[in-house]
Structure formats: C-alpha cells, structure tokens
Amino acid sequence: MPTIQQLPFQGTLPDSFFQIPGRLYHLLPYQLEENEPATRALFAQEAERNDIVLFTDHVGLRLVGIFPREGATAFFGYWETVDDATLNRAAFGQLAAEARRRGYARVQGPLNFNTYHAYRLRLGGPPSWQQFNREPVNPAYYPELLAQLGFRPALTFESRLIAPATVPAVYQNKAELLAALGGLPYEFIPLTPEAWVRHETELFALVHQIFSANPAYQPIPESQFRQLYNAQYAAKLCPHTSVLVREQARGRLVALSLCHPNYAPLHLGPEPPDFRRDYPRLPHKTLLAKTVGVHPDFRQQQLMSYLGAYGMLPFRELYEQVIFCLMRTDNFSLHFTDGLPSETARYALFEQELG
C-alpha cells in the first residue's frame, strides 16, 4: 500500500509540493503555470476561510483537500500525479474519509480554492495550439484516473478555435451585428490599464454580479481580486478588443469583454505579459476571447453578441485567428460561434457524491 502523508496546512508547504509538477511536465509540449511565491501567499490567505489538508507521497503525487467552513461541498485542487491508480486510490480515499468525517456530501475538483484561480481538467489529447495562457492543462491520463475513482463530470466546457480560413465567414455571418454597433444606447470604453484603474471598484462589483450565479463560483475578498486583477493584469489585455460597456441612461457598467493575444509561444515564465511590449514579438497572432459577461439586468438584449462584434471591428488588422476560451457548454456565449467550423477542446470539473 502506498504511503500517503496527510498534512494539515499550518502556514507552510513542503518543497516537494513544487517539485512534483516538474517531473510530470518536463517532456510534455505544454507546461503547468504555477508561481511558487503567489501560491504560498494564496494558501495563507485561503486558510482564513477553509481548512486545508495536503495528501502527498512527496515524490509522485500531491493532492489538496479544501474544506470550506460553510456549505456541503468539499473540493480537491493542486492535484498532480504519476499514472498510478493504486497511489491515487489511497490519496483520494483519505480525502473522501476526511470529507465524510467533516460532514460534506460531495467532493468537486480540480479547483484551486475558487474559480478565480486554476480549475478543471482538459479532456483528450492536446489541441493544435497546445496551450494558451491560463488554459487548464494536464497529462492525458488524468480524466481516466478520476473515472476509475468514481468521479464524473459535473460541469463541462469548450474552447473553440476559429481558423484564418473561416474568418471571412464570421464577418458575413455577423454583418448585421457589426452594422448596429454605432446606434446602441451604450458607451463602449476601451479597456486600457488606465481605464482599469479608473473603474477598479466598479469592476469588482460587476464581475461578482455577472458570475456569482455560475456553478462552483465562490466570492473572494476585494483585496484578493485586486491582487489578481489590476493595472498589471490590464496591461496584457488587447486594448483594441477588450471593452467595458456603460449604460448611457444611468452611467453604470453593465458588461465586459476581456481579450488578449496568446502569449504562450513567447515562454515568458513568471514575467507578466504586456501587450505593448509583447504583441509585436509574437510569431503568430492569436486572439484569446477569455472573459465575456453581461450584468443579469441587461441580458436578453443581445449584448453578448454585440461584445463579440465589437472585438471583430479591429480583428482582421491585428490577428490571424481567435480562440473563444473555456465557455461552459450550457452558457449562452457558446452560441456566438455555433454553425462555424472550429477546432474544439473540451474540459470538465469533476464530482463524486459521498455515500
């Protein structure tokens, strides 16, 4: 029987926690994006809201049990492992036993504390693009391991690549939306770092209002939001396709679209991307449509489609192709690309009921 240590988080993580992924990904054509100082800081912050337990053999497996102080769902995250069903059965068995002892009804994951951070598994082999910034990536055997352990997909997602040959058809398909943009009762605010700073407090509220009803969403403190999403984050956005939408009648923000180039081919490592510096260096120009959303009070008004059309206005001058990233398969945003030829990658968040 494999020896799995069960280590309650008490302010520090063992060095092995950050060594295990390197052994798993060094021969793969994509890499796990993990910043050690930021991860250590996040654990310290989240320990104020969750009990955290690490399960590991310090060599080939790490697994973090996240036990929120409220709710019936426990989570697992930061799961990285060799292809060993016995080893994982031992680790997940301990996690399930701990969750039952604490009174949870189910376990979901992988989810690194909340949906503002990494979550989901990529299903199947790697797509042609290999990896875009902050895309869930993992060895291909991960989903099958979870299936063997009794986990099933709870939520599914898609990314769709619209290749250069399809771009003319997109413009033909969306011609009416493009023509209507100038006559809408909304102001479109290009999302530059300066604009982000001006609207930072409103943005925190808007993001919560847009996404709080999503499955698996958990709120985070404004201080954590500002650590993740700030002027440095805004500097990587494409200022020509990223936008805030303001209602002209009352002046409040009602929608947003966050897009940026795929910087992954530059292998920047921990260095934050910067559109002005890095866009000219890209060997291929792929736009990532990353986060698009509309305030609940303004849905059913085609705003989601108009956000897509806004991004199309400068697209042909700046990019060769676009990936619509990580759309939930039951979400309205998926319809913007329905009927268009695309390459699709699929992902899932998994769940196990605890009997």
UniProtKB/TrEMBL annotation:
It comes from the Bacteria. InterPro entries: Acyl_CoA_acyltransferase (IPR016181). This is N-acetyltransferase. It comes from Hymenobacter metallilatus.
